[in-house]
Amino acid sequence: MSAIPVELTTMTEHAILRCPISGGPLRSLTATELSEANARRSHETPELSAGYVSADGQYAYPVDDGISRLTPDSAISLNGAAPDTALRAEKESVQAFYDSKGWQKDEEGVFVDTALFIDPNPSIETYMARCRARVQDHLPKSGSYLLDVASGPVQFPEYQAYSESFAHRVCVDLSMVALQEARRNVGEDGVYVVGDVTNLPFQDDSLDGVSSLHTLYHVPHDEQADAFREIYRVLKPGGTAVIVYFWQTTPWRNRSLPMKIALLPSRVVRRVLAAVRGRSANSSSAAKNELYYHAHDIQWFEQQNFPFDADLRSWSSVNMDFLRKFVPKSGPLSRIPAAIFWAEERFPSLLGRIGRYPMIVIRKP
User: At residue 132, does pLDDT exceed 80?
Assistant: First the structure.
């Protein structure tokens, strides 16, 4: 299979796409329409060599080096004034964070975002790899298209394995940098789209499976329910979506009284060590604080009038701060992550409800 340069796109691949403004199908730009789109494009943007146009001929969308820009704010109006299609400020901040920082690499060649959520402790990293791998247990075993919502660079082997039995992995992200990196990891079987999870540019019932990890709590809080509905809308009947979310409130959240008491000794030690090393104890969280997020709790989720039933299972019942504070690199306590994983496998529904990161599994009849 090959990537999807727009001029080589088949009718089958066209059929999954839709205009994010009109909701109608898309087709390739004709030579005349391409000239018109270039005449109307912003002078700050590169000249188009390929693109899509809505079936009514109203809106053109650029394809840059094989990456399709299918967000409303990327539309070029070919017939009259374009509607107000600017991204919300929260989405712009997320896009800017990942383009300028999150998916840039540090001196060791590690993505900045990845470095925040991995740890050199082998017990912790083994646990996290097993959590990443468990998503695949609930995805369809094969199909034409696996949609990866907010794919990022698809940097972990466990992530890459999700689509190994699919003809195409459709990587969607607001970050152009993420998609450029994803293309290096996924290769020719990938379809790469700048898109918004609250307005996915795909036809109803068009994708065999969907994965979305650590994405929806970065969506504006009042649009997160729309994002769940969009994922369900594009899922084929018989397909499955797996969404990893983050509950704001759990019995052992860091701000609860029991956890404040339990964490007090480790916080004192961390501050002393930070003072000795001459840096802030909170420096590791500085980048995270720049990134918009709003996590709801399970009560919010259960109160939504969703058109689907969801199976809540545990992805990870604890967060990275917990693991770093309580799991040493050696000794008996280094077995804590393995014990946690065993409990999550034994009681997936319970820990999916009360743990930190639920895996929300949605099946479309």
Answer: yes
- Partnered with residue 33 across adjacent β-strands are none
Q: Kindly state the tokens that stand for 61.
A: 């969308």
**Residue-range domain boundaries for the chain:** 6-77, 94-249+285-363
pLDDT at 4 over 80: no
Which tens digit of pLDDT belongs to each residue from 296-353? 999 999 999 999 999 999 999 999 999 999 999 999 999 999 999 999 999 999 999 9
- 94-249+285-363, which class in CATH? alpha beta
The whole-number pLDDT of residue 215 equals 97
pLDDT one-digit tens code per residue, 76-95: 999 877 677 899 999 999 99
Q: Please enumerate in sequence order all residues whose Cβ is within 8 A of that of 357, keeping only pairs 6 or more positions apart, or say none.
A: 131, 214, 244, 245, 246, 247, 314, 315, 316, 317, 319
